[in-house]
Amino acid sequence: MPPDNAVEHDTGAQSHFRALERLYSCAPVNRLFESKLAIEEEGRARLVFQITRTSYHAAGAAHGTIYFKMLDDAAFYAANTMVSDRFLLTTSFNLHFTKPVREGEVVAEGRWVSGRRRVLVAESRLVDADGDEIGRGTGTFMRSHIPLVSLAGYDPSKSIDE
Questions:
Q1: From CA 160, how far away is CA 156, in angstroms rounded?
Q2: What's the rounded Cα separation, in Å, for the pair 157 and 134?
């Protein structure tokens, strides 16, 4: 039988995850893209992103900034599941592009790798609609002085439907 505080931790974790999802959706930059963040467990984040022609470079495929945005967001949110009091900042990010992508759905999967105190490391990968990996990245993230609760959208007291 799990300890009594297991339910409280799970409820607190789920509230934190939903608050992070709302934080993502409230960020002004995310109004520029059709995307949705989902966090189901600690240390993992999944971002579904629609690639459109508006993000193409001159050669007719998604510009590298789109790859970076998806990879950074997925890794960042995977790392921020591990920290419930402070907003994290990306301090470095290494990218590997493996395949161009055109229109359609792309999934970014983020996974926390290490660190819990000041610096956290997370990685992410991009998968296109055919199931092919099109990019991969690893980032380091640092705790900021910004309390999560001070940010518009982050409110762990709200229910999932609010």
A1: 9
A2: 37
pLDDT of residue 5: 36
pLDDT digits (tens, 9 = 90+) for 44-84: 999 999 999 999 999 999 999 999 999 999 999 999 999 99
**pLDDT at residue number 8:** 45
Instruction: Give, in degrees to the nearest 5, the angle at Cα 33 between 76 and 52.
Output: 120
Contacts within 8 Å (CB) and 24+ apart, 128-135? 128/99, 128/101, 128/104, 129/104, 129/105, 132/99, 133/98, 133/99, 134/67, 134/97, 134/98, 134/99, 134/100, 134/101, 134/106, 135/67, 135/70, 135/71, 135/95, 135/96, 135/97, 135/98, 135/99
Helices (H), 27-124: 64-80
For residue 80, what is the DSSP state?
H
Choose among 160, 137, 144: nearest CA to 71. 137
Q: Which CATH number is correct for 5-150, 2.60.120.260, 3.40.30.10, 3.10.129.10, 1.10.10.10?
A: 3.10.129.10
The residue ranges of the chain whose pLDDT is under 50 are 1-8
DSSP 55: G
Going from N- to C-terminal start, the domains of the chain cover 5-150
